[in-house]
């Protein structure tokens, strides 16, 4: 009688892990720009957005064991991590940023920043400044990052209906700010 017994291969898991792309190879290229653009819209500062993007991916990598693919795609999870990084940074650096602004105001004007991919016109930037933080975040998640209402709502911790309503109101405000004669919809 012949019995087929699987012989355990001690290095099979290591071989699988070696062939599988790393987190940086798999997640970063496909999602870095989306996370950066989201953070750029939240902060309005390309340099801060770069720093926060790097911190968000570092935090996501260190907490990768908390990502559950059955709960949704990777991009909304990464954007949620980026959102928490931005909130943490805002909480910890309010006084530091105030000191930096006072210092910068006392300095001679610097050369203008080069255009950033996905940068917006001055008129649109002014119109975005009229939105509440929640409205700006909703526009960033839905329009810039192109998340679904359900995914954006999950990131923000609201219902998809509330997310859609906020987006509708924000787009109406933007339309009126850019074209004061536009009809109210």
Described by the principal axes of the CA atoms, the overall outline is: globular
Fraction of residues in H or I helices: 55-70%
pLDDT < 50 runs, ≥5 residues: none
Which range does the strand content fall in?
under 5%
The counted number of beta strands is 0
Rg, Å, rounded: 22 Å
N-to-C order of helices and strands: HHHHHHHHHH
**What is the SS-derived class?**
mainly alpha
Distance between the termini: 80 Å
Mean pLDDT: 81
Number of helices: 10
Main β-sheet: number of strands, strand sense, barrel status?
Answer: none
What brief labels describe this structure?
single chain, about 180 residues, mainly alpha, about 0% strand
Structure at a glance:
With 185 residues, the protein is mainly α. It has ten helices and no strands.
Give a verbal description of the structure.
The chain has helices at 12-19, 23-26, 28-43, 46-62, 74-92, 94-106, 122-129, 133-144, 149-156, 160-178. The chain is globular and about 55 Å long. It is built from ten helices and no strands. It has 185 residues and is an all-alpha fold.
Strand and helix layout:
Layout: H1 12-19, H2 23-26, H3 28-43, H4 46-62, H5 74-92, H6 94-106, H7 122-129, H8 133-144, H9 149-156, H10 160-178
Helix pairs in contact: 3-4, 3-5, 3-8, 4-5, 5-9, 7-10, 8-9, 8-10, 9-10
């Amino acid at each position: 009688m012949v019995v087929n017994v699987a012989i355990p291969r001690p290095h099979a898991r290591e071989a699988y892990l070696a062939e599988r792309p790393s987190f940086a190879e798999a997640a970063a290229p496909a999602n870095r720009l989306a996370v950066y653009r989201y953070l750029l819209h939240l902060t309005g500062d390309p340099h801060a957005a770069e720093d926060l993007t790097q911190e968000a991916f570092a935090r996501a990598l260190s907490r990768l064991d908390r990502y559950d693919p059955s709960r949704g795609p990777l991009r909304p999870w990464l954007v949620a991590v980026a959102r928490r990084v931005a909130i943490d940074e805002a909480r910890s650096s309010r006084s530091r940023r105030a000191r930096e602004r006072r210092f910068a105001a006392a300095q001679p004007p610097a050369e203008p920043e080069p255009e950033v991919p996905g940068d917006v016109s001055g008129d649109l930037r002014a119109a975005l400044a009229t939105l509440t933080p929640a409205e700006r975040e909703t526009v960033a998640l839905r329009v810039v990052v192109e998340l679904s209402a359900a995914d954006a709502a999950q990131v923000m911790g609201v219902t998809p209906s509330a997310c859609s309503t906020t987006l509708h109101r924000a787009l109406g405000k933007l339309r009126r700010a850019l074209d004061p004669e536009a009809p109210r919809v």
